[in-house]
């Protein structure tokens, strides 16, 4: 039988933090509520990213009113692929990925066909707030459908992997890649069954993975290794994570980035309350890393240069 005191001691040793500590010591302290709209509304996030010179998926259309839904078919007439998402959506809920057409029907990423009436009904639900934070009426973004980097061909199932970077006071402190599976229906969402794979900050190489609560080294659908992948554009990705501080004005933020095979890294969204499963994926806790940044803050040595912050993180946060 496992000794609960030994388990607790081990968790303290690796610096694992829970939701309560995350909220009390980092989210509430470093994230002012007035800045939440910068990350809770994907349209505002996109505009701020463009203003900051950060790459984002191209925006094809915005739908704000019910009557605009019917007009969308004509606007998208020449688009074979696109993504439709609620501006205030959470956890990937409601996102519709269209990968092709058959007549007047849209083909979803899972291969299923969706008729015009079903398409319009789904978008109507988005506007009503069915998939939004707090269930408030929403608006809809239609944007470029990311074509993921070929390095992920053998470790992703019918979906686009994304990379989550936790940034604290502008310093990237931990990262993972989320790989879609059959269970997650092609979505890069850990709660729906995607795999979280920890990434070593200094090198950009994947170290270990977790699927639910199960440690894994191979993708369950492709049976290909998820360990030892060298993430392309790694320094650029870390720099995006660092610059998210100035963009969002939030001290503790999750930065979600995708790697497109044509356009390279692109900012997908930001999160003021990023989940903690990233610790399990990395086999390391966040607390020791966050304390190092707080020590810099206490000494008045926080850098205003994103490149310097990246250099510090690469020197101080290896995944053991």
Specify Rg, calculated over alpha carbons.
20 Å
Biggest β-sheet: strands ordered side by side in the sheet = 11-10-9-8-7-12-13
Q: Count the helices. How many?
A: 10
Q: What's the mean pLDDT score? A: 92
Helix fraction?
Answer: 25-40%
Cα(first) to Cα(last) distance is 27 Å
Considering the protein shown, what is the CATH homologous superfamily of the largest domain? ATP-grasp fold, B domain
Q: Which architecture name of the largest domain does CATH use?
A: 2-Layer Sandwich
Task: Please state roughly what percent of the residues sit in beta strands, choosing from under 5%, 5-15%, 15-25%, 25-35%, 35-45% or over 45%.
Answer: 15-25%
Number of strands: 13
Weakly predicted, low-confidence segments? none
Count of individual domains: 2
Question: What structural class should be given to the helix and strand makeup?
Answer: alpha+beta
How can the largest sheet be summarized? Answer: 7 strands, antiparallel
N to C succession of SSEs: HHHHEHEEEEHEEEEEEHEEHHH
Report the top-level CATH class of the largest domain: Alpha Beta
Outline type = globular
CATH T-level fold name of the largest domain: D-amino Acid Aminotransferase, Chain A, domain 1
